[in-house]
Design goal:
Radius of gyration: 17 Å
Number of helices: 2
Structural class: mainly alpha
Strand content: under 5%
Shape: rod-shaped
Helix content: over 70%
Number of strands: 0
Low-confidence stretches: none
Mean pLDDT: 86
Distance between the termini: 38 Å
Order of helices and strands: HH
Length: 51
């Protein structure tokens, strides 16, 4: 039973790390756009917001 709980905990931790990495990529992209003077509004895809 302990092995199952350990595996489940590791899965959840991996999911959190993945979400954190995805967030970091998006944030870094927006920072790059901002620092280069690109419009941040143009980078948002309306179809992604509804999907």
């Amino acid at each position: 039973m302990i092995d199952l709980l350990d595996a489940d905990t590791q899965l959840r931790e991996a999911e959190v790390r993945e979400l954190t990495a995805r967030y970091d990529v998006v944030l870094a992209t927006y920072r790059l756009y901002f620092s280069s003077g690109k419009s941040l509004i143009a980078t948002v895809n309306p179809t992604e917001e509804n999907g």
